[in-house]
């Protein structure tokens, strides 16, 4: 029998009022052992769990497009651009990690969200601009992952159909039932309270990302060793042979954008850091996790991008796993697509938890006495223990999953639009705000050498964002012109 009670909110929120506790309880030494200095449940995350969150967020299905990106840039620029954005992302992420606390990165007051950090250091209208970029990007990613996961599920179904019925079979399968299946799974997983309880899912998702990346690399190596001759060049696709001059320019822009945004995880960095225990200092653990996460992803990115390019040459497909067809070895292609789907199930939760926290924090602050919002029910679940069910969370989070699924069904080319969202959010979230907060925190003198170098880096990345946005708009316009409402994959 579920027990009904009201308890203080303990999730990510924009403005975090400290929970009120009975003074007698506070004097109890046992209570102090179970909470941090801000009165919240003691954080237990380590750099290992933070690394899993980062890998889950960074190695998205975008890794599958890196062979195509390399084909546009060639052997010279492709790996160089990969390494450049690996360094830029790591550098700006270390700056952002120091902004979790303010004003001191070790002893200052905690900032539970990216917006809270911007408010503490910069304030003003920049807080709203940060929120618009961050949460717009997060919503877009969750819609895009719904589409991508359903495509992988359909690929498994089609592969088995071809294997059973023959390669000439029509095997037309609708994406919509698989979007609904994905949504049902997300409705259940969305009841995970917050980032603090998400580590096991992130670790599973990270393992899945390694699995499908390795399968893709293995199949690419087999294709290269098999002696299939493909054309690769130092400068990528050739004008007049593979593409026109204008197509080369637009594709180069899109490729740079794909690589830049393949590393972006700043949208959830502060929220991930808020799961870390305070000893050793959170910024030190987060920098270690960031280094491990980005080194791991860079290794896989170079493998997938370079080996995939070697296997397919200048004709590399947008998703290099599809280049191996639906046929043989069908079971291995199936396994890769299952791993993609499982990874995206976990990644969806990593990206939507800050959205849940923002809305729930706002509602608790706006209507603190509303029983529907604040009341929870203690339920004993076998093999889990006590779970606190919140009717408000159940309704709101379910509604969010339903809405994102409907958008995915109505706009199946939304993944192209996601590139534009990524372009719009890359510069402010990954580069601009971390650099500006670092300048304020470290009190760097205006026009000093370090100040100038940071501003030059920020300006260069702004140009990358503009270029990538232009490429995304051109690609989106082309897709909309040629778009036919799809019922099958």
From TrEMBL:
Protein localization: Cell membrane; Endomembrane system
Keyword Nucleotidyltransferase recorded: no
Membrane topology: Multi-pass membrane protein
Positions of the Amino acid transporter transmembrane domain: 44-476
Gene Ontology cellular-component annotations: endomembrane system; plasma membrane
GO molecular function: symporter activity
Membrane spanning residue stretches: 47-69, 75-100, 173-192, 198-222, 289-310, 330-351, 394-411, 417-435, 456-477
Coiled coil, from the record: none
GO process annotations (BP): amino acid transport; auxin-activated signaling pathway
Location of region: Disordered: 1-42
Keyword Nucleus set for record: no
Ranges of compositional bias, category Basic and acidic residues: 29-41
Classification via InterPro entries: AA_transpt_TM
Annotated signal sequence range: none
Alphabetically ordered keywords of this record: Amino-acid transport, Auxin signaling pathway, Cell membrane, Membrane, Symport, Transmembrane, Transmembrane helix, Transport
Protein family per UniProt: Belongs to the amino acid/polyamine transporter 2 family. Amino acid/auxin permease (AAAP) (TC 2.A.18.2) subfamily.
Function text: Carrier protein involved in proton-driven auxin influx. Mediates the formation of auxin gradient from developing leaves (site of auxin biosynthesis) to tips by contributing to the loading of auxin in vascular tissues and facilitating acropetal (base to tip) auxin transport within inner tissues of the root apex, and basipetal (tip to base) auxin transport within outer tissues of the root apex. May be involved in lateral roots and nodules formation.
Protein name as annotated: Amino acid transporter transmembrane domain-containing protein
């Amino acid at each position: 029998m579920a027990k009904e009670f009201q308890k203080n909110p303990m999730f990510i929120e924009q403005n975090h009022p400290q929970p009120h506790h009975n003074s007698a309880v506070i004097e109890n030494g046992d209570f102090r052992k179970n909470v941090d200095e801000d009165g919240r449940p003691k954080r237990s995350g380590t750099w290992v769990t933070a690394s899993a969150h980062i890998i889950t967020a960074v190695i998205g299905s975008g890794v599958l497009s890196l062979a195509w990106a390399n084909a546009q840039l060639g052997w010279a620029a492709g790996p160089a651009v990969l390494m450049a954005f690996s360094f830029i992302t790591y550098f700006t992420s270390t700056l952002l990690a120091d902004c979790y606390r303010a004003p001191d990165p070790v002893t200052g007051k905690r900032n539970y969200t990216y917006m809270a950090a911007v408010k503490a250091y910069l304030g003003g209208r920049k807080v709203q601009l940060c929120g618009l970029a961050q949460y717009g990007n997060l919503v877009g990613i969750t819609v895009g992952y719904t589409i991508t996961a359903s495509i992988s599920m359909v690929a498994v179904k089609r592969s088995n159909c071809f294997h059973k019925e023959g390669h000439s079979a029509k095997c037309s399968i609708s994406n919509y039932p698989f979007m609904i299946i994905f949504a049902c799974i997300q409705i259940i997983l969305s009841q995970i309270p917050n980032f603090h309880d998400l580590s096991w899912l992130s670790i599973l998702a990270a393992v899945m990302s390694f699995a499908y990346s390795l399968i893709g690399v293995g199949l690419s190596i087999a294709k290269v060793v098999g002696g299939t001759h493909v054309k690769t060049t130092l400068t990528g696709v050739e004008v007049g042979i593979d593409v026109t001059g204008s197509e080369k320019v637009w594709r180069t822009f899109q490729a740079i954008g794909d690589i830049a945004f393949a590393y972006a995880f700043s949208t959830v960095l502060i929220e991930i850091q808020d799961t870390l225990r305070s000893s050793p200092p959170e910024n030190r653990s987060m920098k270690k996790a960031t280094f491990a996460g980005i080194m791991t992803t860079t290794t896989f990115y170079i493998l997938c991008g370079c080996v995939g390019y070697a296997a397919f040459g200048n004709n590399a497909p947008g998703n290099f796993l599809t280049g191996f067809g639906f046929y043989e070895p069908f079971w291995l292609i199936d396994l890769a697509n299952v791993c993609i789907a499982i990874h995206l199930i976990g990644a969806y939760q990593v990206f939507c938890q800050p959205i849940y926290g923002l809305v729930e924090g706002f509602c608790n602050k706006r209507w603190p006495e509303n029983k529907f919002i604040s009341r929870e029910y203690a339920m004993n679940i076998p093999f889990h223990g006590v779970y606190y069910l919140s009717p408000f969370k159940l309704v709101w989070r379910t509604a969010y999953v339903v809405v994102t699924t409907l958008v995915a069904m109505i706009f199946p080319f939304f993944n192209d639009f996601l590139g534009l969202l990524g372009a719009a959010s890359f510069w402010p979230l990954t580069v601009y705000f971390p650099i500006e907060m670092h300048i304020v925190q470290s009190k760097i003198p205006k026009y000093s050498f370090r100040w100038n170098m940071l501003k030059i880096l920020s300006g260069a990345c702004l140009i990358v964002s503009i270029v990538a946005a232009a490429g995304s708009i051109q690609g989106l316009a082309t897709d909309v012109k040629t778009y036919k409402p799809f019922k099958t994959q």
